[in-house]
TrEMBL record:
Identification of the protein by name: MFS transporter
InterPro entries in UniProt: MFS (IPR011701), MFS_dom (IPR020846), MFS_trans_sf (IPR036259), MFS_Transporters (IPR050171)
Listed Pfam families: MFS_1
Originating organism: Streptomyces armeniacus
SUPFAM superfamilies: MFS general substrate transporter (SSF103473)
An MF annotation (GO) of this entry: transmembrane transporter activity
Keyword Transmembrane helix: yes
Domain of life per record: Bacteria
Keyword annotations of the record: Cell membrane, Membrane, Transmembrane, Transmembrane helix, Transport
UniProt region (Disordered), positions on chain: 387-406
GO CC annotations, alphabetized: plasma membrane
Length: 406
């Protein structure tokens, strides 16, 4: 991997290491301001809703203002909002800063993903995005440990520590990452005007399937502890299961370099990944012991290993010149949409139908994606191949220069 990719992954992991405050936002609102759980839920939902325009703005700014500048703006804004939440002396002030946090929270993602796409060749994008996913998984484990310590002291310090990591990352980004090229700003703005991701049928189809994937993935994060309680197991054991999943994602990275796996076509890889995800979630539906839950976790994590990096690589290939940031932003709204829908659907299924139906339904969604996603992948890769042939040798030369750029 080029040096810029490694530095970007490290910076993103440092930022993720501090992102342990958000799960405690609702708790802070109820304990500090005496608000009801319903009110806290509305504030959390408002934050989630605000992340959707945030990601879209991040994509537009990445392709016009520049990748590095957009990342600095987003990180600095997150630090300001986090400090505001920590210092808020009323529910209204805390809610305003929570919405502000949502509006700047996703500015970082599209430019960082676009910068990875620009720094490596098409053949290395899957591995690059997979490494980013692995780094975030490891940082997430560290974030949980830090939260366990600071949270016992005062929940407000979680937001202060999160703000500090954002400021550190904002200070590091301009030093270690390639500068935005002023000479390219004008052409970038002109090119961005021609990029219309919301009119790209292939991208919108990938967005729909990506939203379903995010909905399933967030069910694991949100309802797994509740599901363990339904099976008379300790809800806290969900932390052990998620740690095991992170271990699979990290230790499985060398597998992606094996010739047989690296040579898999997108349709085959997506079919295998979603099938493993369905198999693992079916295991959740039948599991009644921690060992059974652990085995199911290892299975679906292998599916995650095959899927996440390849998803972003396909979107990066689909994006036209000068539009990578905006394409990544549109595709990334899948997580914002799923973030609003997942808590409602998961808890309702669990309450009214039980854990078996919940995980069986999620497994069925994955099987449907396993059947449909290969068609979408073939469409995207076929269109990319046609664009490459039309562009001719000059596009190949530009791609070669982009691959060699620092």
């Amino acid at each position: 991997m080029p040096r810029a990719v490694w530095l970007l992954i490290v910076a993103r992991a440092v930022n993720r290491l501090g992102a342990f405050s958000l799960p405690f936002l609702a708790v802070l609102i109820t304990t500090r301001f005496g608000a009801s759980a319903a009110t806290a839920g509305l504030v959390a939902a408002a934050f989630g809703l605000a992340t959707i325009p945030s990601r879209l703005a991040g994509g537009r700014l990445a392709d016009t203002l520049g990748r590095r500048r957009t990342m600095v703006v987003g990180l600095s804004g997150c630090a300001l909002a986090q400090l505001g939440i920590a210092a808020a002396d009323s529910l209204a002030a805390a809610a305003c800063f929570a919405v502000l946090l949502g509006l700047v929270f996703e500015l970082y993602e599209p430019p960082s993903q676009a910068m990875i796409a620009d720094a490596v060749g098409p053949g290395e994008r899957i591995r690059a995005y997979s490494l980013l996913n692995a780094a975030l998984a490891v940082a997430g484990l560290g974030a949980g440990l830090i939260a366990a310590g600071l949270g016992r002291w005062d929940l407000r310090w979680l937001f202060v520590a999160d703000a500090v990591t954002c400021l550190i990352c904002a200070a590091v980004v301009p030093v270690v990452l390639p500068a935005d090229r002023p000479d390219a700003a004008g052409p970038a703005r002109e090119g961005a005007k021609q990029v219309r991701p919301w009119r790209d049928g292939a991208l919108l189809a990938l967005l729909a399937s990506g939203t379903l994937f995010a909905l399933v993935y967030l069910q694991i994060m949100i309802t797994l502890p509740l599901s363990l309680a339904h099976r008379d197991l300790q809800p806290a054991d969900a932390g052990l299961l998620l740690a095991a999943s992170a271990g699979v994602i990290v230790l499985g990275q060398p597998l992606l370099r094996l010739k047989r796996l690296a040579a898999l076509s997108a349709p085959v890889a997506f079919t295998a990944g979603y099938s493993l995800l369905a198999l693992g979630l079916s295991g959740y539906a039948l599991a009644h012991t921690l060992g059974a839950f652990l085995a199911a976790t290892l299975v679906w994590s292998l599916g995650d290993l095959l899927l996440v990096g390849r998803m972003y690589a396909v979107v990066a290939e689909l994006a036209p010149g000068g539009g990578t940031g905006r394409y990544m932003a549109v595709y990334g709204t899948s997580w914002g949409i799923a973030g609003i829908a997942a808590p409602v659907t998961g808890t309702q299924l669990l309450q009214h139908s039980g854990a078996t139906v919940l995980w069986g339904t999620m497994a069925g969604v994955c099987l449907a994606l396993a059947a449909v996603q290969p068609v979408l992948a073939r469409t995207a890769t076929h269109r990319t191949r046609l664009a490459s042939e039309v562009a001719g040798p000059e596009a190949g030369a530009q791609g070669h220069r982009a691959t060699r750029s620092p």
